[in-house]
Amino acid sequence: MRQNSPFFLDNETEKRIIDRLQMEGFVFAEVETQLLISQAGSIENLMNMVEIRASGVPLEYVLGFTTFCGLRIEVERGVFVPRKRTEFLVQQAEALTHMSDIVVDLCCGSGAVGAALATGSSKIRLHSVDIDPVAVKCSSGNITNIGGHVYQGDLYHALPHTLKGHVNIIVANAPYVPTDAIRLLPQEARLFEPKVALDGGKDGLALQRKVAEEAPKWLASGGYLLVETSKMQAAQTYEIFANAGLTTKIARNEEWDATVVIGKNKGIE
């Protein structure tokens, strides 16, 4: 019997599965096969999962979860799958977060960023927001069990009014793909992930503008806004933050191709 598998799988069947996935162009077919085996529960379910994956459905949807910042994050079909580069956003936010801080995660998707911050920074008060009901349901499963709150709505409009002026950290992995560039995305993202989680408007910065413009009203004096963006868009995002009155800097991780713009609320001088 294979380790971590409740059913017997012979080597020949395992090889057929690997070959099937390789035939569809999945370069990590061996790793994916082991993950599918570990989650299948039965040979019948395994073969069904293999065929779903072979049809192009993202592996995370087939498994029902992904790993983010060392955490198991549940993901459902129709929810944006958190990327490795977004762990850099978490790292930057963690460095600025203190115990008992009020943290707001906008465009939370699966809730991965907030979950990672709540796990890494004990006793923060987490509030997560998404406009998509599917994302809200998914993120609720990931963060309510660690004391977080999830709201459905359009950015700050969904938050309790009592938070205004008291938020210490706002993080946002808002969609930043220009509308015309969505067709250039990998098939898994383009065909299976929700457009609302990808489309950042004509120049990709529409949501970032809305987030930055309202941030000073919600941030406490000395609070921070952190937004993931692309290397090409970083200078424009910087300008958006500066125009909103935030003291701004850019953080970059070349290994992960990750860019985060960080703005500090000046507050009352």
Summarize the structure.
By secondary structure, this protein is an alpha/beta fold.
Label this structure with key terms:
single chain; alpha/beta; 7-stranded mixed β-sheet; two-stranded antiparallel sheet; elongated
Description of the structure:
By secondary structure, the chain is α/β, with parallel strands linked by helices. It contains 10 helices and 9 strands. The protein has helices at 11-23, 29-40, 43-54, 59-63, 86-94, 112-120, 133-143, 187-192, 206-218, 234-243; strands at residues 65-68, 71-74, 102-106, 125-130, 149-152, 167-172, 219-229, 246-253, 258-265. α9 (206-218) packs parallel to α10 (234-243).
Individual helix count: 10
Morphology call: elongated
| Fraction of residues in H or I helices | 25-40%
Point out poorly predicted stretches: none
- Give the helix/strand class: alpha/beta
Mean pLDDT: 93
Largest sheet: 7 strands, mixed
Distance between the termini: 68 Å
Question: What is the C-alpha radius of gyration, as a whole number of Å?
Answer: 20 Å
Helix and strand succession?
HHHHEEHEHEHEEHHEHEE
Strand content of the residues, in percent? 15-25%
Strand order of the largest sheet: 5-4-3-6-7-9-8
Instruction: Count all strands and give the number.
Output: 9
